[in-house]
Amino acid sequence: MKKTATLALAATTFFTFAQPKKANQTAAFTTSGKTITVYTTAENTKLRLSQTDKLSFGIAKQPLETEISIFVEPNKTFQTFMGIGGAITDASAEVFAKLSKSKQQELLQAYYNTENGIGYSLLRTTIHSSDFSSGSYTYVKEGDSELKSFNIDHDKKFRIPMIKEAIKTAGGKLTLYVSPWSPPAFMKSTGNMLKGGTLKPEFNQAWANYYAKFIKAYEKEGMPIWGLTVQNEPMATQTWESCIYTAEAERDFLKNFLGPTLKKEGLGDKKIVVWDHNRDLINQRANVIFSDPEASKYAWGIGFHWYETWAGGAPMFENIQKVNETYPTKNLLFTEGCVEKFDSNKYQLWANGERYGTNMIHDFNNGTVGWTDWNILLDQNGGPNHVGNFCFAPIHADTNSGELIYTPSYYYIGHFSKFIRPDAKRVSTAVSRSSLISTSFLNKNGKLVTVVMNQGDKNVTYNLIISNEKTVIEIPAHGIQTLVY
């Protein structure tokens, strides 16, 4: 059954974030005098990011094997958190434009406001068209290898206005990065933007120039670009816009063309992310590119998606951990995930939200610095999509009724994005039983955030133990909690 809702957030004043202290002034975390505020979302309840408890710490004794405990060690820190967000695609922007002004504001607040919404701080968008566009297009006339006709007028109708509104709602700053799905048809071996093919060698420089022109054009419109990925899903021949790069081909394009071109064009500060595909082959891509010093110097890190499960297996979280331990100076960024095969009967399917929670906890625990969902908004058909690849988004708009439909995925993502803020540090967290999974981050204002997830059919009582202090909490069946203390 379709369920239309407005934000079901508790009427609570959430913590604000102080200016960061200087490194030599940062005190060790302590539970002394702290209270734990618990926010809960759970299936078969009305709880949606709702404040459900206010607890205190007491003295902890040796936990028993019969108890379930979460152990947090704030003095052991790992990666610095970059942020969480989603993609504003042509599809998202086209649907957004069909909403009333009040619903547009509701959507923007729901995603980008830190108090009334879930505080997105990352934003991905595409370099010309993807499958989530109403049709294929580029920014140049066909055959214009000198890019004399380059312009982004297409994006000024829907996408750019929405991105600007998102930045404004987020307080004037979002970390924005961009990704291409395919070079123009004339640059490719197949003469077609769709169905794979490769970049013709004679267009290596023209294609590198294209990225630079796009970044400059967007920045001229007042949208600072933090970085870019080299190619979306470079090992997938899709029915939509796609282009194949072997690891060696991506390495050579990066070190011989894209990296030097951005530097020459005064864009050497832009962060370049390689791979931008699934976890299954990520280790081989990292080995080939990061082991080459000339290519590696241009690569800020490596991006990945969650669709390796298409082959029938489980998510390969351990591959992310292996990249992290092998190349500790490179950053890991989740660049895309969505629930495939749209079905309006499954708007409120709880497993879709749990998929987000599970992936986010494991990815963060394995060293990921940022996490980006796919489309932030789609219509009641899971589109528009010009090749029929309809999918779910955390929020859908019924363009017939004008209403917004919030799915469980929105609330699961919010348990992280609302409370864990950019520049937080992940801290050591472990669970004594597999019935729960958990991750923790220490914000720069001194607030510690622990996210706990229960995918089981029964409520679970657990201890939160820090040093010699603890509190006891109950999490509902098929629930997720954020503890702020």
Automatic annotation (TrEMBL):
Residues 1-18 form the signal peptide. Pfam families: Glyco_hydro_30, Glyco_hydro_30C. Residues 83-420 form the Glycosyl hydrolase family 30 TIM-barrel domain. It comes from the Bacteria. GO terms for molecular function: hydrolase activity. Residues 423-483 form the Glycosyl hydrolase family 30 beta sandwich domain. The keyword Hydrolase applies. Belongs to the glycosyl hydrolase 30 family. This is Glycoside hydrolase family 30 protein.
